[in-house]
Every structure is written in structure tokens, then in C-alpha cells.
Amino acid sequence: MTDSLVRAPETDRTHATPEQYAERYARSLSDNDAFWLEEARRLDWVTAPSKAGNWSYDPVDIRWYDDGVLNLCHNALDRHLDARGEKVALHFEPDDPESEARTLTYRELHREVVRIANALKAIGVKKGDRVTIYMPMIPEGTAAMLACARIGAIHSVVFGGFSPEALAGRIADCESRFVITADGGLRGGKPVPLKDNVDAALERPGAGVEAVLVVRHTGCEVNWTEGRDFWLADKANDADCPCEEMKAEDPLFILYTSGSTGKPKGVLHTTGGYGVWAALTFHYVFDVRPEDIFWCTADIGWITGHSYVAYGPLLNGASQVIFEGVPNYPDAGRFWDVVDKYGVSIFYTAPTAIRALMREGDGPVTSRDRSSLRLLGTVGEPINPEAWRWYHEVVGSGRCPIVDTWWQTETGGIMITTLPGAHDMKPGAAGKALFGVEPVLVDGEGKLLEGAAEGNLCMARSWPGQARTVYGDHQRFVDTYFSTFPGRYFSGDGCRRDEDGYHWITGRVDDVINVSGHRMGTAEVESALVLHPTVAEAAVVGYPHDIKGQGIYCFVTLVAGEEPDDALERELKAQVRSEIGPIATPDLIHFTPALPKTRSGKIMRRILRKIAENDYDSLGDTSTLADPGVVDALIAGRRNR
Ligand code: WT7
């Protein structure tokens, strides 16, 4: 197949020509240790590492820069103060464009971080303690993460859109005894009751904490538990707060992510390797120059917000925008208003946002200037070529290269992309491996596929930003990522590699779906549904959705004697929202008398996926079903999109 090429613009060859990329890439594999020791010099070390990689995939034991000592908060802030203390670190754009925007220089952000770090110490946080951060997208969110890094506490950021139930589970799992939150948040003009949610979460078993630090933000009323709750302003102070000396392999953060089975996993990243990886990927992929204004629209509750809001830009001394709001408030031109207001030159967002804005037409884009933009990026899910072209031609006026960056919570940073200037682009393809990354494709039996091929996307070798374990459950880490194809890291994604070596991600091959760029375990949604007393069984699959990429389709059987109706459907949707959060709200609920099962009782999801996709002609072999008649009943009851 010939894939349409979009040429790399000549003007953008700052960091890597095609030849430079090829040469550096070859060396990054052939002389791996030397390459990574050199790259480690991007950071300041208290003790420089003498060796880079020290890892094995069998048994699974991953270490990088083992004997190095450093602090990432020092690297993100302190070390910049002499040379660029007065440079803008953050432009904060609030949800309401009429509210006051705030700009923090590196010196001001440093001061804020020291104040929060002192507050953390004052409430009893010590090195190695887990601290849960449940915040809106305000400067204090990023500052709280860096404050943890400064004193050696392990942050666990929980997305502010998650429910109290989901928050409670994440507090209990890592035995976090401290929470940092805000009184409330604002998104699209609507209040988010963050402190109330924390209060509710802390009533759940196993989720009691010692102290809650509350940032005053919206000024909304909150309930108060004396002795447990503290205003940040009352605990913060400017006392000297030196950076804790951390070993490279000391944990930096835990971030929960969904898998195909069970509860969300606490993916653990460590200090040295993650720091080098976040710094390097930001530098190369976004081709950053001193005068750039970078804007990544992700929330700090996701890995994208960790690596490309909190760490990557600040480790590189870059200026960035952080945005509290949503793309369509007060109108569909908001992103471009913000681009113009701050002169954003590099813009990084998700395909789902692009598709939603594309639907509003070109007007809200072309009515804004956008001439500051020079590079665009996407992340989170495959981008359909139509949306890619709109992004390129309308948003970028055909001038800006696009980097379609494939990576995961577990990879810590970008793994596969084109490099701006170095590579021609193919709309819909992520591109090539970044330095030190060795993607391979294997078939279902684990056989290596050469050349142009389609298969399961694995990594043949470790890289510094790789997750080290699942917090508290190393066996689960081993089972999830290293047991399907022994000796390799398995991403869970399917992928086609074309004759030019470009990677086309075809989506998850496990029971994980991707809803608006967010990973959702179908098992989690099923567990939430069966908590309802009328539900006997539930099976959840994804289906193509114009805006979200994938929508959530739920097949539900009821206990004997119960009849489905609209009220029950609403109740079930509400149940999932309260168990997980609004992002998990089912799109379609399909009540059915029975699910298709094999004679041994296993649900045949393959058939459910086809029905959800409206694809009845290729249901495949249904002869192994215990009751083939179930399929006709399911087709007859198909819910319309
Ligand atoms: C899954 C990881 C990486 C930060 C956001 C999501 C999908 C991610 C792309 C892309 C095609 C992509 C994959 C991956 N994905 N980026 N550019 N093209 N698919 O992080 O929640 O850990 O999800 O997102 O399926 O496995 P995550």
C-alpha cells in the first residue's frame, strides 16, 4: 500500500536531519550504554552514574543509572535559577477567560514549590511516603508534584474527574496517608467539588489519611475536619528546603492505569531513568528552542501531564501554558484564543479533541491568528487521516509539521513518532522509533516478524523511562507485560509496520478500550455494572465512535423477574459514573436475555465486538456456542448509535 506522504518542511531541521537521525539511532542501539551515559548529562547529578542500563526481562528486574544520585526538582527548577530565573515557567490560563491569568517565572515557581514542600513536611510527610494529589489544572498541581520530588515523597496523582470511589481505591492501594487537593475546580464553567469528593473518599474503608492539604482556588464552601484538614496557606512557608538526595532507582511516582483484568494498576516510575527520558523525549520530539511557548493540553492526572506538563518542559527550562478548562468553553475557538494570547509555538493535544473541534467547522479556527504555531502534536489514540489533514491544513495552515506520538503510561515518555524536520509524515502513522527504542512485531506465537508486517507490538530492549513495577505487586507487572511473549515487553497494542519502517498502531489487542484517549478496562466497567442488584451479568466492549474514538457498549443480563426500562438504563449509567467517573459513562446499554457463551461458560467477546460494530457478516465460527440462538436475539436487540 502506498501511504500518502507529507513532506518534512525544510525550515524545521534543527535537531535532526534524516541522516542525523539514522546515525544517532544506529549508535543508540549498537553502543547503548555509552549513548545513555551521554544522554544522562542532560541532568545535574549529585553523583554521576558510572553505568547506564542494568536490566533483565527474565527475570524482570529493570534498573538504569543504578549508582547515580540526583533530585528531579533541582533539575526542573533550582538549576535554572541563575541563567533563567526570570524566564516564564508557566502561563496559567483559567477556565473562565475573564478570570485573572497568572504567570510564574522559574524563580516564582521555585518559591511556590519550596512553600508546598515545607507544608508537606509540616504535616508529617517524609521521604518515601506516598502523597495523593487530586487537583484541578492549576499551577499548584504541578508545584505539588515537584514539591514531592523535592523531599523524596512519591506522588500519586489521581485525575480530578475520577469519582470518590475511584479515588478511595487509589489511596488505599498505595497506603497513602496524605492528600493534596483544592477546595474546588472549574471546567467549562461547571464547578468540580474536589474537597467534597476527598471527604467522601476518606470515608471508604482503607482510605483514611492523616492529613489533607487544601489549596484555596474557587473559594467555594467546604466541610472541614479539624486536625485532619489544613489550608495550604497556613502550612506553607519560605524556610530553606534543600533537595533530598535521591538514588536513581528511588521511586518518583505511582500512576494508576487500567488493564484488561482487575483493579487499576499502580505503575511505578523511578527518578533517574524517567528524568533522562522525559528530558530527552521533550527535547527531540518537540524540537524545543529557548523562545518557544509549549502547550500540552493534557491533565496532570494522566501520564501525558506528568511527562509533558510537569517534568519534560521544566527539565528543559522551557516556557509553557497550563490550562484549567476545556476546548469548547466558552466556545469552540478557545484553544486558538489561548494560542494567540500567549504566542504558543508548539501545541500538543489528543485526536478526540481535534475531532470534536473539526465538527464545529473551520470558522472558530480561521477567525483566530495562530501564526505563532510552528509544530503540532497528537497523542493518546490513532488519529484518523481525515482529522490529521484538518489539523495540518486548517489548524496549522499547512505550515506546521505534526508529530503523532505513540507511547503509554508504562513507557514514561514518547517511543514512536516522526521527528519534526527529519522525517516525512504519513497521516495516521506514528512513525519511527525514538533513540534507544527497539520495537519489534511478533505473531500470536511470539515469532518475530521481519520487514513490512502486522502483529503484536513489543519492545526488544529496555529504555530508561520504562516503568519498573506495579506498586506492591511485582508479579502482576511480570504477568501483564512480560509473560505473553517471554523476553520482551508487550505493549498490548497491535501494529502494522510498512515498507518504510513506519508504525501504524491498529489499537489494543486485549480487553482494554480507548475512550477519548483514556484507557479503560472493560472489566472495571463490568464490575461497576454488576454491583447493581438487578444485574446478573455484564460484558463490555468498545465500538467505533466519531468523537471518542471508541464508545463504551455494555451488554447486560438481568436477574430473573427484572424487566429493563429507561429508568434502569439511567441508573446503570449513574452507577458506573459514581464507581469510576464521568469518563467511564456507558454510551449504550443493551439488555439481553443471554450472553453468547462457549459450552464451558466463557463469554465470546469476539462476537459481542462484531455486534457492537454492526458487523454481522463476519461473526466467524459460532458453532462452539452453547446456544447459537443467542446471536440472533442479540442482533435483533442491537442498540443504535
Ligand atoms: C495506549 C496507552 C501515552 C499517553 C496517553 C495514553 C494508545 C497512545 C497513541 C498514538 C495510536 C496511541 C495505545 C496505547 N495510544 N498514543 N499516537 N497512536 N495509539 O496513555 O492511557 O497509558 O494509553 O494509548 O493503545 O497502548 P495510556
From TrEMBL:
<feature type="binding site">
    <location>
        <begin position="380"/>
        <end position="382"/>
    </location>
    <ligand>
        <name>ATP</name>
    </ligand>
</feature>
<dbReference type="GO" id="GO:0005524">
    <property type="term" value="F:ATP binding"/>
</dbReference>
<feature type="binding site">
    <location>
        <position position="493"/>
    </location>
    <ligand>
        <name>ATP</name>
    </ligand>
</feature>
<feature type="modified residue" description="N6-acetyllysine">
    <location>
        <position position="602"/>
    </location>
</feature>
<feature type="binding site">
    <location>
        <position position="508"/>
    </location>
    <ligand>
        <name>ATP</name>
    </ligand>
</feature>
<feature type="binding site">
    <location>
        <position position="577"/>
    </location>
    <ligand>
        <name>CoA</name>
    </ligand>
</feature>
<feature type="binding site">
    <location>
        <position position="532"/>
    </location>
    <ligand>
        <name>Mg(2+)</name>
    </ligand>
</feature>
<feature type="binding site">
    <location>
        <position position="530"/>
    </location>
    <ligand>
        <name>Mg(2+)</name>
    </ligand>
</feature>
<protein>
    <recommendedName>
        <fullName>Acetyl-coenzyme A synthetase</fullName>
        <ecNumber>6.2.1.1</ecNumber>
    </recommendedName>
</protein>
<dbReference type="Pfam" id="PF00501">
    <property type="entry name" value="AMP-binding"/>
</dbReference>
<dbReference type="GO" id="GO:0046872">
    <property type="term" value="F:metal ion binding"/>
</dbReference>
<dbReference type="InterPro" id="IPR045851">
    <property type="entry name" value="AMP-bd_C_sf"/>
</dbReference>
<feature type="domain" description="AMP-binding enzyme C-terminal">
    <location>
        <begin position="524"/>
        <end position="602"/>
    </location>
</feature>
<dbReference type="GO" id="GO:0019427">
    <property type="term" value="P:acetyl-CoA biosynthetic process from acetate"/>
</dbReference>
<dbReference type="InterPro" id="IPR042099">
    <property type="entry name" value="ANL_N_sf"/>
</dbReference>
<dbReference type="Pfam" id="PF16177">
    <property type="entry name" value="ACAS_N"/>
</dbReference>
<dbReference type="InterPro" id="IPR020845">
    <property type="entry name" value="AMP-binding_CS"/>
</dbReference>
<dbReference type="InterPro" id="IPR032387">
    <property type="entry name" value="ACAS_N"/>
</dbReference>
<feature type="domain" description="AMP-dependent synthetase/ligase">
    <location>
        <begin position="78"/>
        <end position="461"/>
    </location>
</feature>
<dbReference type="GO" id="GO:0005829">
    <property type="term" value="C:cytosol"/>
</dbReference>
<feature type="binding site">
    <location>
        <position position="328"/>
    </location>
    <ligand>
        <name>CoA</name>
    </ligand>
</feature>
<feature type="binding site">
    <location>
        <position position="304"/>
    </location>
    <ligand>
        <name>CoA</name>
    </ligand>
</feature>
<comment type="similarity">
    <text>Belongs to the ATP-dependent AMP-binding enzyme family.</text>
</comment>
<feature type="binding site">
    <location>
        <begin position="187"/>
        <end position="190"/>
    </location>
    <ligand>
        <name>CoA</name>
    </ligand>
</feature>
<keyword id="KW-0007">Acetylation</keyword>
<keyword id="KW-0479">Metal-binding</keyword>
<keyword id="KW-0460">Magnesium</keyword>
<feature type="binding site">
    <location>
        <position position="516"/>
    </location>
    <ligand>
        <name>CoA</name>
    </ligand>
</feature>
<keyword id="KW-0067">ATP-binding</keyword>
<keyword id="KW-0547">Nucleotide-binding</keyword>
<dbReference type="InterPro" id="IPR000873">
    <property type="entry name" value="AMP-dep_synth/lig_dom"/>
</dbReference>
<feature type="binding site">
    <location>
        <begin position="404"/>
        <end position="409"/>
    </location>
    <ligand>
        <name>ATP</name>
    </ligand>
</feature>
<feature type="domain" description="Acetyl-coenzyme A synthetase N-terminal">
    <location>
        <begin position="21"/>
        <end position="76"/>
    </location>
</feature>
<feature type="binding site">
    <location>
        <position position="519"/>
    </location>
    <ligand>
        <name>ATP</name>
    </ligand>
</feature>
<dbReference type="Pfam" id="PF13193">
    <property type="entry name" value="AMP-binding_C"/>
</dbReference>
<dbReference type="GO" id="GO:0003987">
    <property type="term" value="F:acetate-CoA ligase activity"/>
</dbReference>
<keyword id="KW-0436">Ligase</keyword>
<comment type="function">
    <text>Catalyzes the conversion of acetate into acetyl-CoA (AcCoA), an essential intermediate at the junction of anabolic and catabolic pathways. AcsA undergoes a two-step reaction. In the first half reaction, AcsA combines acetate with ATP to form acetyl-adenylate (AcAMP) intermediate. In the second half reaction, it can then transfer the acetyl group from AcAMP to the sulfhydryl group of CoA, forming the product AcCoA.</text>
</comment>
<dbReference type="InterPro" id="IPR025110">
    <property type="entry name" value="AMP-bd_C"/>
</dbReference>
<dbReference type="InterPro" id="IPR011904">
    <property type="entry name" value="Ac_CoA_lig"/>
</dbReference>
<feature type="binding site">
    <location>
        <position position="535"/>
    </location>
    <ligand>
        <name>Mg(2+)</name>
    </ligand>
</feature>
<dbReference type="GO" id="GO:0016208">
    <property type="term" value="F:AMP binding"/>
</dbReference>
